Structures are given as C-alpha cells and as structure tokens.
Amino acid sequence: MAYIWLVVRGFAMGSADVVPGVSGGTMAFILGIYEELIMSIRAVAQPPFWRALLRFRIPAALRAVNAGFLVSVATGILLAIVTLAWIGVDATNQPVMLWSFFFGLVLASVVTVSSRVKQWGPPLWLATALGAVGAYILVGAVPLQTPETWWFLVFSGALAICAMILPGISGAFILVLLGKYQYVLGAVNERDFVTIGLVGVGAVIGLISFAQILGWLFKRYHDATVAILIGLMIGSLRKIWPWKEVLATITDRHGELIPTVERNILPAFTNAAGSFNMEIVTALALAAAGFALVLVIERVANRK
Q: Where does residue 165 rank: exposed (0-12), middle (13-18), buried (19+ CB within 10 A)?
C-alpha cells in the first residue's frame, strides 16, 4: 500500500508537469516527498551506490538509492505523462478554471511549506524575496524559436527536468520558452521514441546533476534553501493568475499560435448581458477547493 500511495503521488506530480506553469516540484512539496525525492536521486551519483553496484551487490545498491521509493514515484510520473499528455496540448479549453484550481494549490503550498522553516529572520526573508523576483521574471519571459537537432533536444530535457524538481518553476513552461513544448508532447502522443529518447537522456543527466546541488544545499543550508523555494512558488503565481489578456503572439513552425506577451487583469464582474459573471464564483470555488485540498493533505501527512 505504501508503494501504491507513492505511485499516486508520482501521478500527481506528472499531472502537474504536463501543464505549462505548474510545477511537479510544487506537488512533491505539497505531498511531503520533496526532500526524500532529492536525496534519493542524489544517491545515484554517490560512492555507496557505485561501490555496491561494481561488486554486484545488487540489493545493497538498490537500498543505497532508495530504489522502491524512486521506482514508485517515477512510475506514477510516467503514467501521468503518457495518459494525460493530451491535457497539456488542449489545456486552453477552460484556462480560467484550470489556473484557478492550481492558483489555490500553489498559494496553500506557500503557507504550509513556510512552517518547515524553524525560525524566520531577515536573511531568510531576503532569500524568499530573491526567489520570488527570479521566478516572477522567468515566467514572464518570451518563448523562443529553436532548432530541433538532437543536441538541443538533449539540452531541453536537461533544463526542463531541473525546473520540474524546483517548486514554482514549471518544466513544461521551460519547454514552452525553448519552443519545444508542442513538439515534445506531439512526440509522446505519436510515440516518436527517438525524440522521447533524446529528451529522456537529457532529463536523466540534468536530474542527477541538479540533485547533487539541491541535496548539498538541503544538508548545509536547509532553511535558506526552503526559503528560496518558497519564493519561487510565490513568483510563479504570476504565471498561473487565471485572468489574462494576450498582447502579442507568434506562430511556431507548426502553425500554432503561441502567446508571447500576456498581462494579468482583473475579471469582468458583469457579462455582455449585464448580469453578474458567474465564472468568478466558479473560479473562486475551484481556488478554494485547491487551497483546502493542500491543507487536508498537509494535516494527514503530519498525523502520519
């Protein structure tokens, strides 16, 4: 049952990762597995794992990297990406509703994760502010037109996976910035295993490398690292604000219109007929549901 629950958590992470603007790392934080995930990935490049592997002590090698945990979470993530890739391609059908729910999720995660810092002070507030400013600037960046060569697909996978394990920074949105979001999801839906493999190689390289840095930071500067990650989540709220006005678009090489400049706006309180805009009520209800869901998950995790 413990492994099944980990698969479910991985599925939640993968579900978030297919939506540009939503971070699987945020979901890992919400679900209480973030630090264990980073440390388990980090162990893949550590001496105990390789010593056991080179001596063919397979059970010891698997224990060194917390293999049961990693396989369960990875299984859930892959299941979500394969089965829900169409959501990412067609995520614009109900954008206000989608972003409202995730806005509530991320906002509540900021509240719950902040309790993991033992004692707040000016340095930690500064770290949070820097993280927030950095994420705010990044999520407002303009998508690029980029090549579809093998090396750039590897690079895209490495960069996107680093973002996926950072709360507040969406790996899918990094692919949008690199001009590879529709291309990669199309490859998943069309079972283009060459493209998937190249992106996957980059993802493995980036994941193991970046986990070394994060793991080191958690061990030596735990509270400051958490404070920066909280800032990243706060800054990402710019991207997932539900009501937006598109100011400029570009057409990619596949003929798809991609918004390049958007402005967050307040919702219209009345519709064309002059009556109250019920979309606001629905959006607020979804945001409240997302907020409450995180609080419930946090309470259950604390009891366990």
A: buried
Q: Helical H runs in the chain? A: 2-17, 24-30, 34-42, 47-54, 58-64, 67-89, 95-114, 122-139, 150-164, 171-177, 181-189, 193-220, 222-236, 278-303
The owner of tokens 């291309």 is 183
As a whole number of angstroms, the distance between CA 221 and CA 264 comes to 35
User: What digits encode the pLDDT tens for the residues 148-195?
Assistant: 888 999 998 998 888 777 776 667 777 877 878 778 878 887 888 899
pTM: 0.73
Considering only residues 214 and 17, tell me which one the structure prediction assigns the higher pLDDT: 214
Contacts of 227 (CB under 8 A, 6+ apart): 117, 120, 124, 125, 127, 128, 131
Q: Count CB atoms within 10 A of the CB of residue 98.
A: 20
